[in-house]
Batch of 4 targets.
Target 1
Amino acid sequence: MTFLATYAAGRDLRAAIRVASVLLFTGLTAAAAQITIPLPFTPVPFTLQPMVVLLGGAVMGARLGMSAQVLYLAAGIAGLPVFAASPVLPQGALRLLGPTGGYLMSYPFAAFVTGWLAERGWDRRYVTSIVAMACGLAVVFSLGLIWLAFVAKPAAGFSAALRTGLYPFLAADLLKLFIAAAVMPAIWRLVGHRDSAD
């Protein structure tokens, strides 16, 4: 069971807690998009979104984590200013057709993969939490790079996609992953201590 399922178990407001959690992580993903560092040599900005996507999957599980990211994309497609601010990339549905489209469209799948592993207890220990989130991050980079290489800029090729869409971000994203992976075991330990105190 995920942390959310464990927390909501036996409570009268289970459905409301699930809906609120999905809305919370949708909002957190949108907020993380606003913390953006544009890089001059790539159209892909540095954001905190992958960290939030992976945490959402770990906390809520596969289906709810995926739902939060689908809702986030739907809000962006509808024209709400939830995507990262950019002087060259448009808001709205056209953002998904641009160079960052593959990364954005990967978020539901990355949350699902991380959540699926969390449902099997991978988020309860630091090492397995790292592996679960690394699997989700691999989905983000895989779909992002495939889109960048073969759809957004097919003339540039895959090596150019690696130079602009992977190498500049890998070290920072791994650091974010190690931080995010530490959150879930800490929360589980905290909940365990509270349960034993009760």
Note: The mean pLDDT is 89.
Target 2
Amino acid sequence: MMNLKLELIFKDRVGIVADISTIIAQQGDNIVSMEVVRREDRAHVYLETENQGQEVRIEEIFENLANIADLIQIRSIDTLPQEERENRFRVVLDNISDGVVSIDREGNVTTINRVARQALDYGDRSVVGSAVRALNLPDFQVLECLEGKKFSNVKKDLITATGRYHYFSTGRPIRDTKGRIIGAVEIARDMQEIKKLARSISDPVKIGFSDIIGRHPAIEAAVGFARKIAGADTVVSIRGGSGTGKELFARAIHSAAKLQGPFVPINCAALPAQLLESELYGYVSGAFTGGRREGKAGLFEVAREGTVFLDEIGEMPSGSQAKILRVIQEKQVRRI
């Protein structure tokens, strides 16, 4: 059996498809697929034929097709436009993190992407053309979409030989240009992926040096110096007027240092003097009336293995500044 793929370019007119079909039939070949694309006054016909075993020379096929009126050019091609579209579509589906299964109006699988195949334990085996009821799905709710129904974010569990999967499933009917239902699709999103996405949104945004925008030599020099000291285990003093970006630099240094602990900013001017030390150093059980029975960790302890940013430290009482200086020098803290 021999397959031949061709592109034929005609001056656009009525009857081109009929003329091609007649010649192919006279040769005893089958037409596997045919696509016509109109571009201005040209008709580009993409054709794939299948020979059933007769010895037909390619030159003879070209000669027969060349007799069709208004033919401008004919050539062999390796890939049909439809194949290229399907390949691009398949690459996109196989590289998304959601599982996708689509069916036709008879309930047979038309598309199943890599994530869905792996979850269902099919590996690289193709199940396209199989009845969707033959798949190892927890239910076949997608078949209800063939009746026009929809479902969104339905929690489902899938148990296979490789383990249990928890996911949210959404199903929609597929309609043609006239609104008729010609199939349905079910999209499954792993609950773990949703949780990771939620955490990434809720977690504090990491600031890096790339977030500091400026072309002035002073800014560039400050960024360059901050990059150099970011990896040093030391105390950094950042001076500047209000609103000049001191905390931005502090966060960038913390991110570049790749510390295991958190970044803890403390607005020293905003803490009442009577609460300042208990917030900074914490307190043990029974330290004072109204405190937590189990005690409380101070912000220095919270920032362990990370960074403490003392903002507006000059607004603190001098006695409190002296105690903080001692903590910085000794690198030790004791709860009240």
Note: The longest helix spans residues 81-94.
Target 3
Amino acid sequence: MIFRPYYYYEIGCAAYLLGCGTLGQCAVVDPHEEDVDAYKTFAASKRMAITHVIDTHVHADHRSGGPALAKATGSKYCLHESAQVELPFEPLRDEQIIDLGNTRIQVLHTPGHTPESVCLLVTDFKSGKDPRFVFTGDTLFVGSAGRPDLPGKARENASQLYESIHQELFSLPDDIEIYPGHFSGSACGAGMSGKLSSTVGHEKR
């Protein structure tokens, strides 16, 4: 599997590119508008076609590069099916599988930060049949969790966020690595660590 993170330290954001070098297919997760050309250039350097562009949720803190990147590459722009946006997108469903050859992504619907939030559980079949890591978007950070108050109905959203973290994410094996959408410096959570990744077991503790 080819895996390339993109970190935006001035605003505490992260985006990711991952895929199968053998089949030559990849996906970009939570892309930023200013780096559309950078994602295309890196994928081309690895002889991979971008087939899926996925936003883990509708972002409030930066402009998504998802629609522009999908248009530029002829790929699918993906959001959870409950997303309320006025542009076309490929709807994702809970437990849906996205097949990228030796790399597989499973969609986990994890509402709370926003109603349409998803996490993406990734398996690299080159290293084994079990999942290796999960992109947690704005649901779970290193040392913190996403804000439930941004869309309104903070108490209701907080309850959903608790369930999403405890029922979906904390039910995963402890050694699963987590790669969040934000780290220290972002306004999308409080008390976030400056660390860029963690594990399910560490965040449970």
Note: The longest strand covers residues 13-20.
Target 4
Amino acid sequence: MLQIVELGHGAPLVFIPGLQGRWEYARITVNSLARHFRVLTASLCDEPSAGATVDRARGMDAFGDHVIAMMDATGVKQAALCGLSFGGLVALNIASRFPERVESLVLASTPGPGFHLRRRHEIYAKLPWIFGPVFLIETPFRASREIRRALPTARDRGRFIWSVLTTGLRSRLSPARMAGRARLIGGYDIAAACARITAPTLIVTGEPGLDFVVKTDTTRQYMTLIAGSKHIVLKDTGHQGTLTRPDVFAEIVRRFAEKAHHAAA
């Protein structure tokens, strides 16, 4: 049975989490969005906690089918779609295959067509159970500059780090599933999907040099691939901007989604 998280009231918005797979890692973002929207979210379909049946042979389409099943189960005919990082590729997949279900599209720090895994990360992805812990240990060091910029006080940084640690203890990550998702990115025809997008689209990035996962210039390529798309920078952030400045991000999404809704009406 599908496990769907539903929070808030108002116009529907579907939030798709990133490579970690578990929606709990974006809980703070979901809570901020729920102040403005009726938010539907869930862990990615290949997570056991999602309660979904997965046809892995379908690749990215399987993740998109899962979200459509969520919308069907909750009676949502059309919604704003917001995807974070890998979740942005899932959102792109849905908007390209089911345009009638997407009123507006938000891609946050999403890998673009120029994205590729670094050499050592390719090795990690091939042997996830061996190198997965190494990747997780590296993460705080790679993110430290961004976190210091977004959260200038030691108190705020301490709260953020504690929140991430406690989430990690409650919602265990699977290096093997993360590696499988990472390998899907390079094989997905992003340009072809973009050519089929008709929904108003907003591209959200952090500042250049602060995103330690997806370089902002690869995400900005969506502006040339999706007709009429807009771009906004979440200042003083990088890849973690939706977590370190969730209220600012939610307000950006609210303004964009409302404008798209009024234009459609």
Note: The first helix runs from residue 27 to 33.
